[in-house]
């Protein structure tokens, strides 16, 4: 895990130059040899996307007033010193996650957690990283996935809040014996590259997806407190 985190913190600060190289427009899998064996699972996941097209680009303009509402069964985490905030399930507790600035996890179930990390960058907006699909493909396949994991990307969305742009995407990381599903949201501001990742065991994902999407969509950056 430590090596993966180290790889993430280093790679996120690099200019993304990866290309999709003819990857399928609907579902992107790291290994074409796995495509046929995963076909049924991909079809099932598509049905769970609630009508959202996989790899779709959705531009959502939201006001800060909307973003700051706290729905029932959630709590708000605000870090004014580091310039970001997000929602998390009210029954989760905070914990230390190596290499991350903040983190919360389910008290009883493993792999259900949210964490936020950031690194310095000279870029001013996520669009400076390159096209959304290429950048996310590179992140999931070359940064988030460990050598023994097979990554699959299901959905990409862009939203804009108070003039700041965010990319949120859904993906799986399959390893022998277990799988992890996740949403990630990335944004750039305050001279920092922010990443929020919220995860759950793949077997529980269909029940938790909508709940955790709220967390991913709630992430917001703001001017840091002087």
UniProtKB/TrEMBL annotation:
Q: Which domain of life is it from?
A: Eukaryota
Biological-process GO terms, alphabetical: photosystem I assembly
Residues forming the PsbP C-terminal domain are 73-221
Give me the Gene Ontology terms describing cellular component: chloroplast thylakoid membrane; extrinsic component of membrane; photosystem II oxygen evolving complex
GO molecular function annotations of the record: calcium ion binding
Q: Which NCBIfam families match?
A: PSII_PsbP
- Name it: PsbP C-terminal domain-containing protein
Q: Which organism is it from?
A: Brachypodium distachyon (Purple false brome)
Gene that produces this protein: LOC100821961
């Amino acid at each position: 895990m430590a090596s993966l985190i180290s790889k993430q913190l280093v790679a996120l600060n690099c200019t993304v130059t990866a290309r999709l190289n003819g990857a399928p427009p609907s579902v992107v899998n790291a290994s074409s040899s796995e495509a046929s064996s995963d076909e049924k699972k991909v079809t099932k996941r598509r049905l769970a996307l609630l009508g959202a097209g996989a790899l779709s680009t959705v531009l959502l303009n939201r006001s800060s007033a909307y973003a700051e509402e706290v729905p029932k069964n959630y709590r708000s985490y605000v870090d004014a010193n580091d310039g970001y905030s997000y929602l998390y399930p009210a029954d989760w507790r905070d914990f230390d996650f190596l290499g991350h600035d903040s983190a919360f996890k389910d008290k009883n179930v493993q792999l259900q957690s949210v964490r936020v990390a950031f690194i310095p960058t000279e870029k001013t907006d996520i669009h400076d990283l390159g096209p959304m699909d290429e950048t996310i493909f590179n992140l999931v396949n070359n940064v988030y996935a460990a050598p023994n994991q097979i990554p699959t990307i299901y959905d990409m969305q862009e939203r804009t809040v108070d003039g700041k742009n965010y990319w949120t995407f859904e993906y799986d990381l399959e390893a022998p014996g277990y799988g992890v599903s996740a949403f990630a949201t990335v944004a750039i501001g305050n001279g920092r590259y922010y990443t929020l990742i919220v995860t759950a065991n793949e077997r529980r994902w269909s029940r938790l997806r909508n709940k955790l999407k709220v967390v991913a969509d709630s992430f917001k950056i703001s001017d840091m407190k002087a």
